[in-house]
Structures are given as structure tokens and as C-alpha cells.
Amino acid sequence: MRTPLRAACALAALTLATACGTGADGQADARPDGGGAATAPAAAGAFPAQVVNCGRTVRVTRAPERIVSFFPSNTELLLALGVKDRVAGQVWADQSPPKPAYAADYAGVKVLSGGEVSRETLLAARPDFILADGEYNFDGRKLPTIAELAELGVPVYVDAAFCPAVTGTATLADTERDLDALGALLGVPDRTARAKETVAATLGDVRRRLADRTPVRAAMVQIFDRQLYGLAGGLYSDIVRTAGGVNVLDGQVPPGKNFEVVSVEAVAKADPETIVYHHTDDADRAAAERWIRDHLGQTRAVRDNRLIGTPAADYSGLRAVDGALALARALHPAAF
């Protein structure tokens, strides 16, 4: 689950348990780690391959050729791994524009839906693998469940940081777990190994630059349907920490979650130095900033004009690493 927008679209799915799920090979997995990790080292192109993901075993017998991605950051991840010719379509495409480095290839990926996708449209794309941003998509109502898709021969891999069991505790380290898992499942371990090296170098440089900096007190929020949501815990707060900040809304989000409705009064009382807000496009960015200025004008962040708008896709998948770097530059420009 990424944002309040998608929570509103699939609220019922958020309550689904994962412990009894079955994998693509029809077997339940006993490990409750909630993330994704290869169960055994695999040579390039070694199949069958399997990983543990969200407490399930995900297994492929050959390299997937018709991949459907849910969320822009997952589409970009597939492009980064060099499998653009194997991407059959993307879903939730309107949640963020692509990063410039991927814009040309991204434009060539068929959009199945800008938001939610119907069962008919998804299955018409004839996917043989789905890379998803959360289990909430597969509630058995609008879309088949993950177990039902497995029975149809369509394994589903969910971003490790957004498996329900770890949503409130995930970190940027889950990016490497995704890379390991996808390297095995897609048959591109060399590409994922290089990506992991880039991740380590980028985050290492950020941490060195910020080692002596005082953390900035920041509130990460999103405005949806004129409602204020605090984004805290899990990957969101880890990105803030990595970027040289402390999320003042950590105590406002219940354990095990990474977003919650918060009151204007609670944010005002926390009085953040900076407000970081998510947006999906330029119009959403402008509307969100107006709302924040109108309702949170008493905060130090608004008084000092310290409002940082960031694309929603900057907080998931491989793109989360670039998101951490961009936020670090915004919070501590003198360090860069």
C-alpha cells in the first residue's frame, strides 16, 4: 500500500492476512519474514527459480516474457534491469511521471490503466508475471487473489517493503532484497548485482555527506480528498532518516502501518521545520501546496517556506534510493 489514494480505492484489501497465502507453485511457505529473498543462489538464466515473498513462495519455471507492473517505480525498475521488451503493460501509471532517464522507454510501455485495472483488462494482457506495489490490488473482487493468479500460472511478486508484515518496519535495505529476488526470477542476476553496487555507492555517499549534520525535523504528508495523511514508519521514515531528517509524525501512525489520517492540530503541535508532501503530477502538487499553506500556516515550515514536493513514486522500489538522495539534497543543500 503506497498512498491514501489507493487505500481509498481498496480499503477492504488492507485487512487481508498473508500467512495462509499460497505461492505460484501451489505451496504455502512457512517463513514469516514478509519480504523477498532468493531461496538459493542461481546462475544467470537458471530456471526454475523461486523466492520467498510476503510469506509465500513465488516460483517461475522460465524467464517471464509478459510482465505487468503495478506503479511507475516498478515499471522503471524493470527498465533499469534491461527487460523493457518483456513488459506487457503497466497499471497505476498516473501516480507519478517517469524520471527523465527512463522517459523514452517508459513511454513505450503500454498503459493498461492509469489507476485501478479491471480483471478483464489485466487478463487480456496475458501476463506471465506481475510485479506489484502491494497486496491490496488482489482482493478477489475486482482482481483475482494472488493465490487465484498463481493457479492461472501468473506468479505475483510484491515489493518487499510493502509486504503487510513489514510495512511499518521496512527500510531501504528491502530494495536490495527486491533486486536479489528479481535477479533470480527474471534471469538477470548480473544486472541486479550492478544495481546493488550503485545503491550501495549512492547511499554510502549520502551518509558520509550527512554524518555531521543536525537532523531536520520534518513531517511527511499527503493530501487526498481534502484530508491530511501522515506518512510515517517503515520505508517512509527510513528515507527521511537517510536523508538527514527525523519524521515528527512517527508517533502519529499506529505500529504496523505507514500512513494514517492526522489532524492539522497534531501537525501544528509538532511544528516541523520542513514539510515534505507527496504528489502525483503538477496539478496535484500545486493543490497540495495551497492546502498546506492554507491549513498549516502556523508551522515553522510554512513560515520559513520550507515545503518540499516530491513525486509519490520516489518512495518505492529502486527509485526510493534516488528519492532519498533528492530529499537529502533538499534538506541539506550545503552538504552537496
Helix-strand layout with pairing:
Layout: H1 4-9, E1 36-38, E2 49-53, E3 56-60, E4 67-70, H2 72-80, E5 87-91, H3 103-107, E6 111-113, H4 119-124, E7 129-132, H5 146-151, E8 156-158, H6 173-186, H7 189-210, E9 216-224, E10 227-231, H8 234-242, E11 245-247, E12 259-261, H9 264-270, E13 274-279, H10 282-295, H11 300-303, E14 307-311, H12 319-331
Parallel strand pairs: 4-5, 4-7, 5-6, 7-8, 9-11, 9-13, 13-14
Antiparallel strand pairs: 1-2, 2-3, 9-10, 10-12
Report on this structure.
By secondary structure, this protein is an alpha/beta fold. The protein has two domains: 4-202, Nitrogenase molybdenum iron protein domain (Rossmann fold); 212-335, Rossmann fold. The protein has twelve helices and 14 strands. The protein has helices at 4-9, 72-80, 103-107, 119-124, 146-151, 173-186, 189-210, 234-242, 264-270, 282-295, 300-303, 319-331, and strands at 36-38, 49-53, 56-60, 67-70, 87-91, 111-113, 129-132, 156-158, 216-224, 227-231, 245-247, 259-261, 274-279, 307-311. The strands form three sheets. Strands 9, 10, 11, 12, 13 and 14 form a six-stranded mixed sheet that branches. Strands 6-5-4-7-8 form a five-stranded parallel sheet. It has a three-stranded antiparallel sheet with strand order 1-2-3, covered by helices on one side. Helix 6 (173-186) runs antiparallel to helix 7 and helix 7 (189-210) runs parallel beside helix 12. The longest helix has 22 residues, at 189-210. It is globular. Mean pLDDT is 90; it is low at 8-33 and 38-43.
